[in-house]
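Let's sit down with a protein and look at its sequence and fold side by side. Please make up or recall a protein chain and show it to me in full. Label the sequence line and the structure token line clearly, so we can match residues to local backbone shapes. Go ahead whenever you are ready, and we will take it from there.
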Amino acid sequence: MTAAGFQVARGSLTHTTNPTPAVVIALAIAIATTLQGCFVEIKRHVVGNWEAKGDYLEAFKVVPAGATQDPFLNSCSDASLSPSLQCNGHGLCMSWYSDDTDWEDSSTEDVNSNSTSPRGPKFCRCDRNWAGPECDIQRKSQMTAFLLSMSTGFLGVDQFYLGWTGWGVAKLLTFGGGGLWWIFDVVRIGSSPVATPDSYRVAADVDHWVFLLCFLSFAGVLAFAFSIWSFHREQTRKALEVLILRAEAQAPSIQHYGSMGSSPK
């Protein structure tokens, strides 16, 4: 094939393979039509997400015993309510500001009575074992979780107690993660109040010195148990080696007596 013929063939091939502008435009219009969403039904919420959530007033309402008034929020806002009824008796009403003098212009002076009244609302400050806006949710015990973690943590009992069922099953199936997960949770639960599924931490009823004393005792028991197991394993291995050496020492004499018995007379 000559050079001129090759150029002609190449030009015809290029002319037949390149799409025309009309085809490209039609293809673009077809793709754009499918992307318009004209035939796609857009799903909408029948009830807004904010309305689907539980009513805060219903969850944390305050209804004093024998009262005829409507439910309200924050028992500390009612000055006529007895202190024993405020915060469900599991806390004290404290100012939002730890010290009213820390807030600029935190007090207003009554010129007529020459008295000072603190500004800012008051809220419940719950006792150690209680939580919630009205101190009506009892916390789980850190001491109980710590003791369960040390004694049966390799079975996941501590996680079941805290409410983490999935982690408890995983810890049970892996036998405490081969011991590593078990020891990690002992330190984690004993050193600080851990969280629970209800977004509240356990009650901080384990002092730091108690944790250190218990953990050192726990580590000592584990080390002693490991040393006993290691010693027994070594003794078993040595006894097995002695038996093998004795068997090898008796083997030639057995073969000698066997050959004497099988020799022809």
Observations:
- The CA atoms of residues 253 and 259 lie 10 Å apart.
- The first strand starts at residue 91 and ends at 95.
- Confidence is low (pLDDT under 50) at residues 100-116.
- The first helix runs from residue 3 to 17.
